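User: Can you predict the 3D structure for this chain?
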Amino acid sequence: MALIYLQAENVSKSFGDLEVLSDVSLSLFQNQRTALVARNGTGKSTLLNILAGYDTPDSGKVTLRNDISVGYLPQEPQLNLSKSVLENVFNADDAISVAIRNYEKAIESTDKMALQNAIDEMDRLNIWDREQKAKQILSVFQLTDINQPVQLLSGGQRKRVALAAVLISNPDLLILDEPTNHLDLEMVEWLEDYLTRSQKTVLMVTHDRYFLDRVCTDIIEIDQKQVYTYNGNYSYFIEKRDERIRAKLAEIDRASNLLRRETEWMRRMPQARGTKAKYRIDAFYKLRETALQKIHSNDVEIGVSASRLGKKIMEVHNLSKSFDSKVILKDFSYTFNRFERLGIVGANGTGKTTFLNLITGTLPPDSGTIDPGATLKIAYYRQSGMNIPEDVKVIDVVREIAEVITLANGKTITASQFLNNFLFTPDRQHTLVRKLSGGEKRRLYLLTVLMQNPNFLILDEPTNDLDIFTLNVLEDYLINFPGVVVVVSHDRYFMDKLVDGLLIFEGNGEISGFPGNYTEYREWAKEQEKSNAEQQTSSKGKTDSKRPQPERKKSKLTFAQKKELEKLTDEIVKLEKEKKEIEGLLNGGIQDAKLLMDISNRFSEISKLLEDKEMRWLELNEFEE
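Assistant: Here is the predicted structure, written as structure tokens:
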């Protein structure tokens, strides 16, 4: 039987008069990968804080197995901004973290005794592999400058530092709040693979539905303060949740029909007060309670109109942009079409957000022109979110833009009614912005963008911090939006459902187009790679001897990649030999300070080279197999 790692019993939590959690009970078992699903503002992050030990419940208790360690990634990680990436990643006081931290610091110093002591401690703990694994994870998240102060990093980079720190600490239980935020698509896919291969026990909150489908073994839903458990992935959850709601609606319908008959019986007020009559009276009140239940859809209602769109949308001619020596765009031209749904993909740092800032006029190009149509009305949903005072009421944020909003059907509603459509109750409408959850702030920002009645919507990571139910409604609205939609998103499900074309930012100013969604693009790219490999193999076969050859299994590698793999194998052997020789020198004790420093620097250089070459070898070898 699987071990219980964590158990919550009747956990409740309120903030002032707002009850966020009410009698929540759940259990996490070893090797389970569980997602917590609920609407924004229903206490998901609060519950994770409590389960991770960062907050206490008003009532109830949380029991954690004594012999396990917990790693927690909060939605807004608290890092030491004055310290480096390395110091934040290895910020724990355990022997391993201290040893690696001291070793990396000693490499940068001129203190030969400190370096020798650090090397001795690394040897004693036998953690050289741990250090290399840490650098591999940092490399995946594009955090290669480990000595860079965290205060110089962007918000997204800081979230990746926090995620890397949690993964590197290698805990028994991972608690992750929106782990895919600020990751590019390749990073998300790497994290999927890491979590499934490592057989970690995981509790997470995420809006990424493909991630839920591919990683999770169980889903816990909190709906109207009730907890429901589903032993399956996201697809299973959707199926069983619909069944649950249909069954509940049928139960309410049956109870309503029966209630009419029992109400008539109660009106006659039977004189008999025997056990049977008393039982029937008690049953009546239970029946009435069931019949009066309501299944609230709690779905956001997006009904805003769009401005009329002319024939000419926007034309981009020979656009170029660089930052110092880094080329973002080079002579890029594009013509936007009516009702286009365009997705923008690419690794972090390839210029996706810069491109959006260029076409909105937020950033001037180095050269080229942007020619908008006469009727163009752009609304831009930025990844950075709203820039409004935190001590303003929600209702005042909307009224500042408009007191009355025109809907797609031509009707008008007040700002308060519009907020209600976005699930802001009258009480929440008069709440200060700073008291909203992260998801509620995102929902508020979204409605302020949509109520501008644009005909050209630009959305930069719109799915961050929105619950999956809001996302489903947003997708349906965008599919039917009578204008142009341009979206940057790491959410593959969102991209697949919405876009009909892609711009792929490949770096160094290179941008290519693809007529299809993200999954179609990935499949096409794999087919292209396979086709190229087969052509390389075929070409090589024609130049070989015409003598009959034994049939060979076709390699998925190109000829050049096979040569690279052979070369890497030789280089890794040589580097490992040199590394072992240097370890012998260091362990033998070196008196000359300069020589010790030179040898130590070479040791670090070799370790980094080995890491890079081994990673590349593994990638190529996977295709070869």
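The radius of gyration is 29 Å. Residues 501 and 515 are 4 Å apart (CA to CA).
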